[in-house]
Structure formats: C-alpha cells, structure tokens
Amino acid sequence: MTEANIPLYLLPLPHLNDWYQRLGFMPIADTDLPHALRKIVLQSRRRHKGLTAMYIQPSAR
Predict the structure, then answer these.
(1) Cα gap 34→20, rounded to integer Å
(2) Which of 36, 45, 34 is nearest to 11 (CA)?
(3) 3 state DSSP class of 54
(4) Can you count the helices (H) and strands (E) in the chain?
(5) CB-hemisphere CA count at 13 Å for 53?
(6) What is the overall mean pLDDT for the chain?
C-alpha cells in the first residue's frame, strides 16, 4: 500500500463535523478504526465529549 492509498483520519470537535462532511469526510465507527487510532479516540473522548472519528478515502481528496 502506498501513501496515496492510505485513508486520512481525523477527530474534529463536534461543531466542525458538518464542515468536514461537506469536504468529503465520513464518520467511521470505532470498531472500524485501526487499533492504535481507536485507543486515541477513546482517550480523547474523556476530555471532549461527542467526538466522532471521520475519514476520507484518497480518491475523494
């Protein structure tokens, strides 16, 4: 897999979700995240309630 084929993940603050979705990012279930990122998401939710992990496929960028 080359860099161009790797999805881009982000954890926007809840008030930015709609903006990122307009850019092509889609919400992703915690169970579908890579293990290391899932751990970060769960830790981040302790500080920022309502975080939604999102991703975009390289072809959509």
Answers:
(1) 20
(2) 45
(3) strand
(4) 2, 3
(5) 21
(6) 88
State what percent of residues in the chain have pLDDT above 90: 67
DSSP 12-34: --GGGHHHHHHTT-EE--GGGS-
Q: Could you tell me the strand order of the sheet in which 8-10 lies?
A: 8-10, 54-56, 26-27
Tell me how far CA of residue 42 lies from CA of 27, 34, 49, in angstroms. Answer: 15, 12, 10
pTM for this predicted structure: 0.79
The separation between CA 33 and the C-alpha centre of its own chain, rounded to angstroms, equals 8
Our CA angle for 14, 58, 5, nearest 5°, is 125
- The first and second tokens of residue 15, run together, are 């008030």
Residue 42 is which amino acid? L
